[in-house]
Design a protein that fits this description.
Length: 203
């Protein structure tokens, strides 16, 4: 009796995040799902930055995690499977694309001000751009000068999660503010410059 098996069929499972920012990595492996074929499968992964010229990557496994993406651009991947059974043709998966975009930036022209105690302060507004996904904001404050760049070490201000923040003026002294902007895209984040707000006694 001779049993004929169909040639292998190969599909490539794409992780959830196929668009990310510089410095990010896919949150899951690329995974080859094969069917049919006879014998032991072997795998070879390929990558390209122009979708024309492909180079072999990875090891003989049905999963592959590309290294960290340190440059923006488009990246393409596919995998080829070969079975040890006699007469089984090699099969290539479809090509999948990963898009890497520049990190978001934020307008650094924001400035602080000096107010009398209990005066009406002007809102501090930041304008992020770039990246991928939705912007999410968290404002921070510090009573001490912040010298790090980007700023760190502040205390999160409860409820201040919008691009506009109006500093309070009820307490005399100097306070430093900044905003962390994160995005739903992988590794997409940026922090604003520090803003100094001075509150002086009322005349």
């Amino acid at each position: 009796t001779v049993l004929f098996i169909h040639d292998p069929i190969l599909n490539l499972q794409l992780p959830f995040d196929d668009t990310l920012c510089i410095g990010g990595s896919l949150n899951n492996n690329l995974t080859a799902i094969d069917s049919n074929g006879v014998g032991t499968p072997s795998y070879q992964w390929y990558s390209s930055i122009d979708n024309i010229n492909f180079s072999p990557e990875g090891t003989n496994t049905n999963q592959y995690l590309p290294p960290t993406f340190n440059n923006s651009g488009n990246y393409w991947y596919y995998v080829q499977v070969a079975f040890s059974g006699v007469g089984c043709d090699n099969d290539n998966s479809d090509t999948i694309q990963v898009v890497v975009v520049d990190d978001p930036i934020v307008d650094s022209a924001i400035v602080g001000d000096t107010y009398c105690q209990d005066a009406d302060a002007e809102p501090i507004i930041i304008y992020p751009s770039g990246g991928t996904g939705n912007y999410q904001y968290q404002w921070f404050s510090s009573s001490s000068p912040i010298t790090s760049s980007p700023p760190t070490g502040g205390t999160p201000i409860n409820g201040q999660t919008e691009p506009s923040f109006t500093p309070p003026t009820n307490t005399i002294g100097t306070t430093y503010y900044y905003c962390e902007i994160t995005m739903t895209g992988t590794n997409c984040n940026v922090t604003s410059d520090t803003v100094e707000v001075i509150i002086t006694p009322s005349p």
